[in-house]
Amino acid sequence: MKVTLKDVADAANLSVASVSRILTNRGRYSEVTAKRVRELAQKMGYYKNQNAADLSSKKSRAVGVVVPLIHTNFADEVIKGLYEATISSGYELLITYLDENEDHQYQVFQTLLSRQVGAVFMLSLDIPSWMVNTLLEEKISVISLTALLNDQVSAVTSDESEMMNTIIDYLVTMGHKNIALIGDTKLTTIISNTRRTNFIKLMHAHGLTDDNMFLYGTDHTYETGYNSVTTDYDINHLPFTAAVATADLVGQGLANAMLDHGKKVPDDLSIVTIDGLQQTEIARPKLTTIQQNFPEIGRVAMQLFLNSDSSNKDPQVIYIPTELIQRDSVLNLNAKI
Amino acid sequence: MKVTLKDVADAANLSVASVSRILTNRGRYSEVTAKRVRELAQKMGYYKNQNAADLSSKKSRAVGVVVPLIHTNFADEVIKGLYEATISSGYELLITYLDENEDHQYQVFQTLLSRQVGAVFMLSLDIPSWMVNTLLEEKISVISLTALLNDQVSAVTSDESEMMNTIIDYLVTMGHKNIALIGDTKLTTIISNTRRTNFIKLMHAHGLTDDNMFLYGTDHTYETGYNSVTTDYDINHLPFTAAVATADLVGQGLANAMLDHGKKVPDDLSIVTIDGLQQTEIARPKLTTIQQNFPEIGRVAMQLFLNSDSSNKDPQVIYIPTELIQRDSVLNLNAKI
DNA sequence: TTGAAAGCGATACCAG
DNA sequence: CTGGTATCGCTTTCAA
């Protein structure tokens, strides 16, 4: 049978109350007995039943993380950041995956609620809004990572507009005019819509017209990148000289498609990817990218939550700086003779 | 305030006992009232406090998953399998990450224990043995994934010996004699040691001697692959014609190092990687690999656990088939004129 | 079929 | 500084 608080108390000839106080470092007790109790607990192999503790104290040190089952592995980076912040604060991470199935979503959501998590970190993509609303009603902090959900939830993310601006600015400086946005450009999810909108807006801001813009794809996959130039556009007469990939993998697909068809990157097509994971460095040619600081996003998000009880309660948005990393996938058209 | 069982019971003019029975589909009750209660609970926004439920019933539907913080992303694949099996069985996954820090390990371990998990799935690599032992003492099933830990714990994994045999067999058939094992070849962890030992044993079994073998590296990183041929060996006079990479990333590093130095793959070096994730298909040249079925490992592991109460209790080892996928990174020496 | 009541293991308030 | 005890929300006999 499992060792309980009472067992330790009996063995120590103390009350459960005292032992509890000692083991949680709360309230008053003498260091002498405390030492004795701690050793005893250790020796007896006692460990707290967190379920009971949470039930009794009506709080929980657990926070939930919702990760899309199909993610572009930037999730791992974010989780690393969360892990760091979490482990040093004594909180515990309840990571749940989410697919597109409604029933499953409901189940996951139930899990989170029924475990009394204090906060839920939503990792990008299409989190059902009924889920967010219910969480909010239950006074559970919802923090959106790598995406702005709506103005009721806090978010820690890269500045999408700035990112896109940096990219287009760079591309235009390099002499590009006809530019494509490839990857997830659909209108139905918040993040893809944001990117699409920003792309169009910023192209205009750079004096480019609709004729200079090209949009392709509805997801962040390798295949989308690959197929864009092999099926939808004529690879021998691409109407654009540069492409912005909404994820590293998309850019990789783009690059491979070119290579596989005897074309060269960046000579025949310049590519800039969004994300900047290890992959972009491993690719040949190395991919120019705007790198998001995912671990930092995780770390900051956790801190935001930890500090939230004390100070204000209003939803906040924190932007984590991104960095343009110039590598070998963008051609300088101006240098061309 | 949160809606509790009692609230629902009051609203329904029933006792908590009855409502509990209905909501958990246990015991006897009339379908008529059941329907009423279920609707009421739904409308009131009731959801079970799983902590209280677990505490009361002294069991838990949660299982833990321990993932090395630095993983070769095959972990995601395994988790997908686990998730599938878990979501359809009503269990809940408690995913925890683990780094090398002893204190953190202890903390993670505490989390798992204190949440009363029914089983812990250990994802490869160096899981501290004190952790395993304590878990076992607490009668918590420990199932090792993608690695054999010891004969006290069940395991679901690929057949390491068979994998290595397939690779060497293939390489020898293609005319290779001098072969290197590159990646994690250290003696101190179970999995790397297994691979190292199998490599040597199977090289011998193929009539090759120690002079034909080369070992390099102590981890599964890209850098290890890259550095092996650029620093430790003379890239212009490699003593081996083929290399077995202990992970895809290692193979990728190897390939890039060759490419970056004007060498060709497979002409100047043949490469076979172990794992076979998407990466090997994206690489150029595409990497020949022995592919492990990670999602299946996850699925089977969960099923193993689910069926374990009913039948026997002995530790079992289940091997999930692997597949050699021939792509473009191995040269056929025999075909050479 | 339904209800009363005894826990589950820990916390925290209130006395002593 | 220490102990008694109500309580957290739910499950589970045992009676009714």
Describe this structure in words.
The structure is a homodimer of 337-residue chains. Chain A is an alpha/beta fold. Chain A is built from 13 helices and twelve strands. The first copy, chain A, has helices spanning 5-12, 16-24, 31-44, 50-57, 74-87, 102-114, 129-137, 160-173, 190-205, 222-232, 248-260, 278-282, 294-308, and strands spanning 62-68, 92-98, 119-123, 141-145, 154-157, 179-182, 213-216, 242-245, 270-275, 288-291, 317-319, 323-325. Chain A has a six-stranded parallel sheet, sandwiched between helices. In chain A, strands 7-6-8-9-10-12 form a six-stranded mixed sheet, sandwiched between helices. The longest helix of chain A has 16 residues, at 190-205. The relative contact order of chain A is 0.12. The mean pLDDT of chain A is 91. At the A-B interface, helix 4, helix 5, strand 2, helix 6 and helix 11 of A face helix 4, helix 5, strand 2, helix 6 and helix 11 of B. The structure holds a DNA duplex (16 and 16 nucleotides). Chains A, B: This is Catabolite control protein A. Chains A, B: Residues 3-57 form the HTH lacI-type domain.
Count of discrete alpha- or pi-helical segments spanning 4 or more residues of chain A: 13
Largest protein-protein interface: A-B, 48 and 48 residues
> Averaged pLDDT of chain A, please?
91
Name of the CATH class of the largest domain in chain A: Alpha Beta
Protein name (chains A, B): Catabolite control protein A
GO molecular function (chains A, B): DNA-binding transcription factor activity; transcription cis-regulatory region binding
Domain HTH lacI-type (chains A, B): 3-57
InterPro entries (chains A, B): HTH_LacI, LacI/GalR-like_sensor, Lambda_DNA-bd_dom_sf, Peripla_BP_I
